[in-house]
Amino acid sequence: MARRIDTGRRSCDAYGMADPVWVINEPEAMRFRVNRSTLVDPQVLELERRRIFDVCWIYVGHESEVRAPGDFKTRIVCDRPVIFCRDSKSQVRVFLNTCRHRGSIVCREAEGNAKSHTCFYHGWSYNRDGELDGVPGQDAYPPNFKKSDFGLKEPPRVASYRGFVFLNFDPNAVPLEDYLAGAKEYIDIVIDQSPSGQMEVIQGLQDYDIRANWKLLAENSFDDYHLISVHASWLSYLKDSGVEMKRPERGHLLPGHGIGKPLGNGHGCTDNVNFRGRPVACWIPIYGEAAKPEIERIRAELVARLGEARAARVADTNRNLYIFPNLFINDGSSVTIRTFYPMGTDRMRVLAWALGPKEESAVARAVRLDSFLTFYGPGGFATPDDIEVLETIQAGLGTYREVPWMEVTRGMAKEGEQLNTDEWHLRALWEQWDKLMRTERPS
Amino acid sequence: MKNSAEITRQQVEDFLYEEAALLDAWRLDDWLELLTDDAVYRVPSNDRPNSSSGDTLFIIADDINRICARVTRLKKKDAHAEDPRSRTRRLLTNVRIVSSNGAALEVEANFSVHRFRRNDGIRVYVGHYRYGLRLMAGKLKIARREAVIDSMELGALGSISFIL
Predict the structure, then answer these.
(1) What are chain B's domains?
(2) Both ends of chain A: CA-CA distance in Å?
(3) In terms of CATH, what superfamily is A174-437?
(4) Which of A293, A124, A417 is nearest to A116 (CA)?
(5) What confidence tens digit (pLDDT) does each residue in A2-44 have?
(6) Is domain A58-161 given the CATH code 2.30.30.100 in the classification?
(7) Cβ separation of B156 and A209 shorter than 8 Å?
(8) Which stretches of chain B score pLDDT less than 70?
(9) B interface residues, A as partner, C-beta within 8 Å
(10) Chain-centre distance for alpha carbon A218
(11) Residue A56 to residue A158: CA distance in whole angstroms
């Protein structure tokens, strides 16, 4: 619904004001503005924790990270320490990593395989299925004490889609597949890289902070408008390495045609014709002559299995997929899973992994990882510049009271298809954010 | 000198101190001169410090072409993450010749790299280097250079946009 407001008003005290205006969305007037206080105000962040992170499906990990019964990874997901693991029946489980007795974390290792997890405070121990099976001196507890009442707690909901495991702290959440909506189709394209339909997370975690509000990374990760200016040095690197780059078509900023679109529930994607090389399966000189036959073999396998059209969809397009609120599966120079959590209004923790087909050859795997590092990650040729721009924005936001609005109207006057350098998909993110932030929840 | 067995720790230290001074001074072209034509530069992911970049995601895994491209990039104004450039100060210590064989030397050293940018707080990268050095025409060259960071995650260190 359109909201008209006095733009000179200071507007974002979520608890102090009856009706804060965070997003101005007036399609007829072609106005779309986001109040910068949404990136600065601690009360907004507090409300986000309750109204966004506690009600949306949140990514935990990939099934391939825990293969055998007892395998586990510990993680902090939305401030909750969790144990992401396989139980004795090889089912993927998520336990809240806190002892039912006094609250200590029961598993302090980052990863491993364990028969049980024992809290070292008083020695309560939990088996692979999260059941409490050891309580030293149990006979001192009254007769109504039952170990079966004190298993490790689980989040209200856990579900997975094609190997990607999510949790939800809202017991009344819609099913994961309904939540994912149009994002499923784009996950499916990524999975089709694998002959067996099994993608796996490759070891080696990139785990770093950005001194900026988490929503800035949400926007940045599928905003192609910034590519030409922020990543000029990366584009030069590709060119210098012999990657052919066509002049952009009329009205375009980038060498390949690309669109941006919302996928429902705040999710969205860019969907671009490839110009940068892909481990599956577009060879570029950076991969080296020796890898060429292998990339061609992968291409042939794709065509044989999926047909020309679907093979081209998988191999010749780059897609940055956003799953609201804090997950990207970006299928570009390589496939990366990137999730991030607020650690304050001006700080986030980012976790990033590489994903590849399970049956990938050693040659192809090495190309994938090398290609990943040409662009992605805290030592890549592009991500550090993204980090820099987000931190530069956050510094600029010290002026949010004097300069309260961000302009998000690119493409707003267009009918139909929107380019990857337009902002339709970014507006969808903010619309969903605004909708959820305005939905009251029982505390 | 033709045989690396003749090289003393002091000579290795002098060489590594010279390298550190070049990097702190952002004399990147001069730094490239210290590398062999097949040199590699790697920073493993914090959770897999002892892995191969062929099957493990690293933070940096450059062959010589990528190292040169990294230097080319860093010299440009549009390497935004280093514009303005970080000030760095490298402290190297505990230098050890781990082994020597013909022209090749394996060297390890501890590092503490202090990085300052804009109004940021100080960022201190602590860890150890694993060098593969090679004697070429009587001079030491760097054939392999691995910077292994001790912290459990990069976390507050953020990105590694400079040469660590």
Answers:
(1) 4-157 (3.10.450.50)
(2) 26
(3) Naphthalene 1,2-dioxygenase Alpha Subunit; Chain A, domain 1 (3.90.380.10)
(4) A124
(5) 343 444 344 444 445 557 999 999 999 999 999 999 999 999 9
(6) no
(7) yes
(8) 1-2
(9) 43-48, 51, 53-61, 65-66, 69-70, 72-73, 76, 78-81, 118-120, 152-161
(10) 8
(11) 12
8 A C-beta contact, residue A252 and residue A414? no
Residues B39-56 pLDDT 10s = 999 999 999 999 999 999
Rounded to 5 degrees, φ, ψ at A36 are -65, -20
Using DSSP bridges, classify how beta strands B139-149 and B35-43 pair: parallel, antiparallel or unpaired.
parallel
- Determine the pLDDT at residue A206: 98
Query: Helices (DSSP H) in A383-442: which residue ranges?
Result: 383-396, 424-437
Question: Rounded to two decimals, what is the model's pTM?
Answer: 0.95
Q: State residue A101 phi and psi, 5-degree precision.
A: -85, -70
DSSP-based helix, strand, coil % in chain B, nearest 5: 25, 40, 35
| Own/partner long-range contacts of A359-364 (Cβ < 8 Å, ≥24 apart) | A359/A194, A359/A195, A359/A196, A359/A198, A361/A294, A362/B54, A362/B55, A363/A290, A363/A291, A363/A294, A364/A279, A364/A280, A364/A291, A364/A294, A364/A295, A364/A298
Q: Which of A417, A399, A420 is nearest to A35 (CA)?
A: A399
Helix (H) or strand (E) holding A365: helix A362-375
Do A379 and B81 count as a contact with CB atoms less than 8 A apart? no
Residue with tokens 């302009």: A407
Q: Which residues from A are below 8 Å from B70, CB to CB?
A: 381
Distance CA A331, CA A318 (A): 6
pLDDT at A245: 83
Cα-based angle A202, A217, A64 (whole degrees, multiple of 5): 20
Amino acid letter, A271: D
Question: Domains of chain A: which residue ranges?
Answer: 58-161, 174-437
